[in-house]
Amino acid sequence: MESPIRALALAAAAACLLAAGGCATPPPRPPGSASLPTANGVLRAAALDRALEDRILALDPERISEDDVRTTLQAGPAPRVILLHGGIYPVYLAMVSFGRFLIGMGYPDAKIRDPGDRRWSYSPYQDSAEIAGLVAWAYERDGLRPMLIGHSQGGIQAVKVLRELDGQFADRVAVWNPVGDAAEDRTSIVDPLTGAVRPVVGLSVSYASSVGAGGAALLLPNQWNMVGHLRTIPDTVDDFTGYSIGFDLFAWTVPGAEVAYRHNGRARVRNVTLPAWYNHVTVPVTSDLATDPPVRAWISAYAPDEVRTPVPLEESGRSVLWAADVWHSVKKHWCLEVQALIRARRAALGAP
User: Is 177 helix (H, G, I), strand (E, B) or coil?
Assistant: First the structure.
């Protein structure tokens, strides 16, 4: 259990529920930037051992076991996971815990932490256009579309980034270089799978989720442009999951209240109601789950379309169901993105 983190987060929340007070100030970034990739360069760099590629292509994205992660997915590339924390200091520590959970379950550290200053997550006070530009920067280099996972105000920010990519705020978005911590002088990228030049606006992420978003946070000036838009998911994501807590005074959800997310096009949208006793502030505090063998086994075997009882240690205050559901989606889209990359490489380069 992570009682020091939980206690600190709860104390801060009680004192600052509606405060806009700032988020953690990240340390200065080292200067530097990377050279621009080319489509063929990305595809050639993605070449893996043929037997490994065949194993990845044979995986069922809906049924990724712990052994599949350890022996197959970890041996190949991975998409960037962009974590978006809440806005009340020091609730960002909860997302640090979730980042460590993902790493403990087998996700590569380098694809979670910022390439510049190594931060674990991004603030909801940061310009959402910068995060959208980061999505483009990462996709151009990896050939794998990133994922967005947001908590509280960070959940609002996740949907805001989807709207940025959809062109709902501006018809141009600059590529954001996280190494130099600055926008690049361009609003388009070379698509790493096709070689075509395409604008940042119109790009999509493979997966996004939001937990505990809405309510009091929408009263803050930085979130006013999301009033009336939070629950509508554009086509700039393949799969979106909206998590609400059955009784959440922060997000203003109570039993029987309508808080469902919906698509306005083709995006696949799921709504999941978490138990009412889940704590809004500490939902992402999950790093210890990866080190508890029975709980880890349950999470690894979890599938949303299967009823698995009982949920281990849920009554202790640990967010096992949320962690398992998010991890299932992360594994799924990790697999799908790498499979798409392998197929694109074979087709473009004439690989056998």
Answer: strand
